[in-house]
């Protein structure tokens, strides 16, 4: 199943003309990378995957529709998945996109 194109457009609009932004198909969705680091990804079912400070990830799962990310049965530290019910408003989505972009910018640039 392809990623949610309307959601990807909403993310694009929020990120705007971010320097060093690259879009790449990853994990069955569309990832937005800043400085070579994935910040946020649009999934196939209307949710997003967000890169966060690993020290904050567990606490963030208390938010509506947020859970830890697992890939192939293994937890991915510093990643959360936000279900569509956690993205009802543009403000909700903007908060998550900003969190992902801010954290990706804080990481060493990948070339």
Question: Concise description?
Answer:
This protein is of the alpha+beta class and 111 residues long.
What report would you give on this structure?
- The protein is of the alpha+beta class and 111 residues long.
- The protein has one domain: Aspartate Aminotransferase, domain 1.
- The chain is built from three helices and six strands.
- It has helices spanning 5-15, 54-60, 90-106, and strands at residues 21-26, 29-34, 37-42, 48-51, 66-71, 74-82.
- A six-stranded antiparallel sheet has the order 1-2-3-4-6-5.
- A hairpin with a 2-residue loop joins β1 (21-26) and β2 (29-34).
- The longest helix is centred in the C-terminal third of the chain and has 17 residues, at 90-106.
- The radius of gyration is 13 Å and the shape is globular.
Defining key terms:
single chain, alpha+beta, Aspartate Aminotransferase, domain 1, 6-stranded antiparallel beta sheet, globular
Average pLDDT confidence is: 92
By secondary-structure content and strand pairing, the structural class works out as alpha+beta
Number of helices: 3
Helix content: 25-40%
| Largest β sheet strand count, sense and barrel closure | 6 strands, antiparallel
Radius of gyration: 13 Å
Strand content: 25-35%
What is the straight-line distance between the termini? 30 Å
What low-confidence regions span 5 or more consecutive residues with pLDDT below 50?
Answer: none
- Count all strands and give the number: 6
Count of domains: 1
What is the top-level CATH class?
Alpha Beta
Shape-level CATH architecture: Alpha-Beta Complex
Order the strands across the largest sheet as they lie in space. 1-2-3-4-6-5
What are the secondary-structure elements, in order, as H or E? HEEEEHEEH
| Morphology | globular
Q: How is the quaternary structure best described? A: single chain
């Amino acid at each position: 199943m392809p990623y949610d194109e309307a959601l990807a457009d909403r993310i694009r609009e929020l990120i705007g003309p971010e320097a060093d932004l690259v879009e790449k198909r990853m994990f069955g969705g569309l990832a937005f990378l800043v400085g070579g680091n994935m910040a946020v990804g649009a999934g196939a079912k209307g949710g997003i995957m967000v890169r966060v400070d690993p020290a904050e990830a567990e606490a963030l799962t208390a938010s509506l529709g947020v859970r830890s990310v697992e890939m192939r049965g293994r937890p991915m530290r510093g990643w959360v998945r936000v279900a569509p019910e956690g993205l009802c408003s543009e403000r909700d989505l903007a908060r998550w996109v900003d969190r992902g972009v801010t954290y990706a910018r804080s990481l060493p640039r990948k070339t």
